[in-house]
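It is worth pausing here to work through a concrete case rather than discussing structure prediction in the abstract. The textbook approach is simple: state the sequence, then state the predicted structure, then interpret. We follow exactly that order.
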Amino acid sequence: MSDALKAKVAELFNEPGCDKNAAKGEKERKKGCSKPLTPGAAAGGCAFDGAKIALQPITDVVHLVHGPLACEGNGWDNRHAASSGPRLYRLGVTTDLSQMDIVMGTGEKRLYKAIKEVIARYAPPAVFVYSTCVPALIGDDIGAVCAYASDKLGTPCIPVDAPGFVGSKNLGNKLAGEALLDHVIGTMEPEVSTPFDINILGEYNLSGELWQVRPLFEALGIRVHACVTGDARYREVASAHRAKVNMMVCSTALINVARKMEERWGIPYFEGSFYGISDTSTALRSVAKLLVSRGAPEDLIARTEALIAAEEARAWARIEPYRQRLAGKRVLLYTGGVKSWSIVSALQEMGMVVVGTSVRKSTDNDKQKIKDIMGGDAHMVESIPPREMYAQLRRGDADILLSGGRTQFVALKARVPWLDINQERHEAYAGYDGMVTLVQELDRSLSNPVWAEVRRLAPWEEGETEDWLDDNVPRLTPLAREG
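Step two, the predicted structure:
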């Protein structure tokens, strides 16, 4: 690891904007929050994966991975970040380092050649260059190559120094934010600037979620100048320093960007959520109040309240047919970060009971919000072993599991409905319309007649009961042999 990268990582571990970090003593703060990676930990995302996730939704640039082919294959567009225009971000571009490049030390030359080729072929406004473990270990200086290429070729080349071995996916998110602060944000001026310009940080337009909330701002005359980085354009991000307000959607990922933009350009920020009716309304109110405090007309607050009243009434009218069927249903929420509390709020609005929520990758602020929402009934867990989760679901502790794709098979084996709530999903749940979609998907999953069928005993099993193991995991009755 280079000295510059070590210094950057140490700085991120001492993040003043993080409530959890600020509460630590001087000695503990220097250790940071990252846990040492163990073999297989990359299945949850390495630093390179986190950086690629954070920056790939910038849709009109080339994302060039400097490393072996497998790094790009593992990190390519695994989040369904949608674009309303350019498709350049979906190209899988890599230098594909070979053993000969490593032995002969030709990695930097290969990188410059690749940069030159993609600029000549695609003429992008910028090229983002990602370091991976192999070139970082052999000492390739992607910063120097990018600086030389930018000067020689006339196109900004942005080094993203986040090799996988330096830490977790969350650290990679922050290193990506540092790359934006060091090389992108503030380097261009916007063509138009208004008193109603805002940035949304930590929103990646997964399955088009940004498009569900942007019309709400447009109805108020508020312009989303830049979304960092969902459905973003390079020029929007480069001129994001001229916005009046920053809304932070996921502080775990890009809190460093929000804090430093406030320090450098005086842009205030707040953390909000677009999941759930009340949280969406709160976010709109917060944006309006901050804009008015920064010079926008005062009638913006009244217009915001009128829009909220109309949208809430429309959303509740569409949700009403489902409320009776969903009320009282028990949910096990196994996710993390901002969704650990924002989805809880959305579920409780429907009268559903959250029997437990995971707080993986959640900050102390996230955990406090869970306690505020759930009160004394807050049941938070860091992680649940698959066998224990299986036992809970099979006992009937929850009627449905909301989680990511990696735990879906636990629910399916327990014959319990499952709904994808993580980034791999294909449905958008943000804003008022997103809440309606979430309710419809929950009702569809819970009322699907397949569950009654798979739970029904086979003809040869009728009259039999299941034996339970000592650890409360059921041993299923084996199928009868033919003949």
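Step three, interpretation. Residues 467-483 have pLDDT under 50 and may be disordered. Residues 409 and 418 are 9 Å apart (CA to CA).
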